[in-house]
């Protein structure tokens, strides 16, 4: 841009004059108001500068009697030039007399900078940016008083923009804005033309020190049908503090709101990340989004982590249209160190949408999701399908060694959520799901079918050798769930399920078709340590489930559990094959009622697995081969497989 003229505001008055004299906005009395300076900058070629040199000691309050002129030519309005400025803004724009539907500053020029102002009590937005982009808004207080501690909110949004490539804040000292106390949104980025905007280094919804809430009445940052914008970043100083707002911290909403990146922010805590400053609703809400392109929350690279704690849900993906969101590398429900509980009130992550990725198998992709008031991750509803959860810590601290349990279960899948994958066959895909106050994994309700739980450590520390059990079952399948797969035959598919308060795996409530294969239950992967679950290794209360199998890799190992290795309480048609069961405190395999059940002639009794009579071994010999002799007394004219 061509360097233009510098206009020096030397009055807090509101008069207008279009005369310039030697670069000084003036009238015959030598007075230059902000209104006059904007008028003259609009009439002047090149990028002009409006500086301040108001005499006397502050407060310096400019109170327009009507809307200030729209900025139509590139300009720098720089409140930091006022003598007495020491790092916080002292030039104030007070909108209480400006009239209805008036913005503090209205910018349509593009390539302009607004720096070092206090903008409050206007009846529309503090700053409105339209038509042209490339603007910078930095070092301002928008919606508060000059101390940054009192609510003086603008009636609508702190900053509104529907253009591209604007920067709100910055990464260097003094460039971040305080955007708090506004009666609607802190920042509103609106419509499909609003792309490539940067929101960095701001405090949004708190006081100037980031120690107390001074919330905007709706969301801190609201992206409506806006794509490819960045909130935060990975470099030093890019972090936004987005806390204390009466809506959500960040909301991504509407058709085309894709490709947005939320990184490196503290959302729902104080500036130190050590205490809660809750947003009333979600930390991050993604809702009714359609279109191609993933929104990303966090990331696997250094500095990408968001701290999202103290909100209602940490992250919520709502509505069937939301898909392909990537959530990686975040701390959700803890403090900044990952060692203390600052839990979100409900779920760490709540998902009512499809094909999203939570974590990942690459280094740094996993999230820490602990200390939350309900579940770490909750998939609910028939729209919640084909999601992937990998590489996360759920219910423990960042070191993977200490209990920091979610109040309910680690992962819950229910109400028709189907075909979701928890874990995987590689080491990087493994979730550590331990220390939760109910189940490790809960799969529940009619229509919740074909979910996969593989390769996880459920109930131990990160090494798989020390107990860090979930309070209830390791994996609980209930309420008519169909065809869950717990483990599998592929290398790495089996889960390590140990040291949980109840059973390792429990199937209840007429659930059927569950396949449990390749898991290690109640011991370490080497099979030598006693890490028994508090009740049975595997407990079945439903029909037609398969425990183990004859193919390579299908066998479960169930050892050192307080009750039985495998217990069938109710249901018929359950297949128990190929499993290795030893050193359990009760029976290896038990059909209810508890304890050995006497064989009956012709096996006519009924009960779990029809109380199948056990083989009676009469002798065996060992040598090159082992030969076993015995009998089976059971239903006539029926084929049986003996193991």
Compute the number of strand runs: 58
**Helix share bin:** under 10%
Shape: elongated
* pLDDT < 50 runs, ≥5 residues: none
Structure annotation, total helices? 1
Rg to the nearest angstrom?
Answer: 32 Å
The average pLDDT value, as a whole number, equals 95
Largest sheet, in brief, is:
19 strands, parallel
Q: Can you describe this structure?
A:
It is built from one helix and 58 strands. Helices cover 1% and strands 31% of the residues. The chain has a 19-stranded parallel sheet, covered by helices on one side. The model has no long low-confidence stretch (mean pLDDT 95). The chain is mostly beta strands. The longest helix is centred in the first third of the chain and has 9 residues, at 34-42.
Topology:
Blueprint: E1 3-9, E2 20-21, E3 24-25, H1 34-42, E4 47-52, E5 60-62, E6 75-78, E7 91-94, E8 105-107, E9 113-115, E10 117-120, E11 127-129, E12 136-138, E13 141-142, E14 159-161, E15 167-169, E16 178-179, E17 187-190, E18 198-200, E19 203-204, E20 221-224, E21 230-232, E22 241-242, E23 250-255, E24 261-263, E25 266-267, E26 284-290, E27 296-298, E28 307-308, E29 315-323, E30 326-328, E31 331-332, E32 349-354, E33 357-359, E34 368-369, E35 377-380, E36 388-390, E37 393-394, E38 411-414, E39 421-423, E40 432-433, E41 441-444, E42 452-454, E43 457-458, E44 475-478, E45 485-487, E46 496-497, E47 505-507, E48 515-517, E49 520-521, E50 538-541, E51 546-548, E52 557-559, E53 566-570, E54 575-577, E55 580-582, E56 589-591, E57 616-621, E58 627-631
Parallel strand pairs: 1-4, 4-6, 5-7, 6-9, 7-10, 8-11, 9-12, 10-13, 11-14, 12-15, 13-16, 14-17, 15-18, 16-19, 17-20, 18-21, 19-22, 20-23, 21-24, 22-25, 23-26, 24-27, 25-28, 26-29, 27-30, 28-31, 29-32, 30-33, 31-34, 32-35, 33-36, 34-37, 35-38, 36-39, 37-40, 38-41, 39-42, 40-43, 41-44, 42-45, ...
Antiparallel strand pairs: 2-3, 57-58
